Amino acid sequence: MEQTITEKIWHNGKLINWNDAKVHVMAHVIHYGSAMFEGIRCYETPKGPAIFRVKEHLQRLINSCRIYRTELEYSLEDLCQACAEVIRVNKLREGYIRPVVFRGYGTFGVNPLPNPVETYIVCWEWGKYLGAEAIERGVDACVSSWARISPNTLPAIAKVAGNYMNSQLVKMEAALDGFVEGIALDAAGYVSEGSGENIFLVMDGRLITPPLSASILPGVTRDSVMQIARAAGITVTEEAIPREMLYIADEAFFTGTAAEITPIRSVDRIRVGKGSRGPMTQWLQDEFFGITSGNKEAPGDWLYFVAEQEPPSSRRKVAH
Ligand code: PMP
């Protein structure tokens, strides 16, 4: 691993070099998937880099840790500042932030509890996840033959590494069959989500998205879209979506930190609407990217400006 993507990585309160962020092969996480993580974007704005909804993302990380009985040493505020710090020290104007908390090297059995908890925050520059053209032209998706994890097996509200084995099956099948993304159904056969995105349909001017009970991750982008739409008087409902509604919707799109708002132009080779980005999707993209770029007013504290955070030297937990 000679290549350095960014210079510094935050580890348990200290900044270390990219090449020093190594894990032993017998760490618990390698064998049993015991990592809780987040994916957060930082956008360039006229007031410098701003991290999008960092508190909501890190609260979800704290929740994921709680579900898996993992004691986090850092508060929400510590973690927010640490995210700002990695962006600042790596001199990124925009990029992707990956906080990850995992069970490290200790004992070799399944029980995670005796193993140390390691917290890392990594950042790097990352472009459009589903392809540069996808945001405008849309993507071709399929319904996966793999169902989404079900409530009594793995909790979907936790964003944890193990859940992504299910996502990988969905993604690989889709890619090998010539689709950009796969859509998983839940255990009852209703639409759940993409391998790394939530899904919305537009029908008769309304927005429809699956509820939390459909084994979805409660997406921060999903919540942002719901808030933007509702503020504009658009009806948004969370309801069970039968698979065939994907084929007859006026518009469909994915939401996610990596995918942002990506139109879906076909499902199972059936055109969705006109087979291109629809007007509601485009309007939501304009609003969303207007907010993330700092050009439209963000509701509440959606933008966390890196330059406004305390200098690290005056902080307790972060040593240099
Ligand atoms: N579902 C899954 C399975 C995901 O991995 C993601 C990406 N974190 C999402 C939905 C979207 O969540 P968010 O908008 O918070 O990134």
Short description:
The protein is an alpha+beta fold.
Main sheet characteristics: 9 strands, mixed
SS content category: alpha+beta
Please indicate the percent range of residues in DSSP E strands (runs of 2 or more): 25-35%
How helical, in percent, are the residues?
A: 25-40%
Which H/E pattern describes the elements? Answer: EEHEEEHHEEHEHEEEEHEHEEEHE
User: What global shape is seen?
Assistant: globular
Please give the alpha-carbon distance between the first and last residues: 24 Å
Q: What is the count of DSSP helices, taking H or I runs of 4+ residues?
A: 8
Gyration radius over CA: 20 Å
Mean pLDDT value? 95
- The parts where pLDDT drops under 50 for at least 5 residues are 314-320
User: How many β-strand stretches?
Assistant: 17
Q: What ligand species are in this complex? A: 4'-deoxy-4'-aminopyridoxal-5'-phosphate
Question: How does this model look, in words?
Answer:
The model is unreliable at about 315-320 (pLDDT under 50). The radius of gyration is 20 Å and the shape is globular. It is of the alpha+beta class. Helix 2 (about 55-65) packs across helix 3. It has helices at about 30, 55-65, 75-90, 135, 165-175, 220-230, 245-250, 280-290, and strands at about 10, 15, 35, 40-45, 50, 95-105, 115-125, 140-145, 180-185, 190-195, 200-205, 205-210, 235-240, 250-255, 260-265, 270, 305. The strands form two sheets. Strands 8, 9, 10, 11, 12, 13, 14, 15 and 16 form a nine-stranded mixed β-sheet that branches. A hairpin with a 2-residue loop joins strand 1 and strand 2. 4'-deoxy-4'-aminopyridoxal-5'-phosphate (PMP) binds near residues 197, 217, 220 and 256. 4'-deoxy-4'-aminopyridoxal-5'-phosphate (PMP) binds near residues 39, 193, 221, 255 and 256.
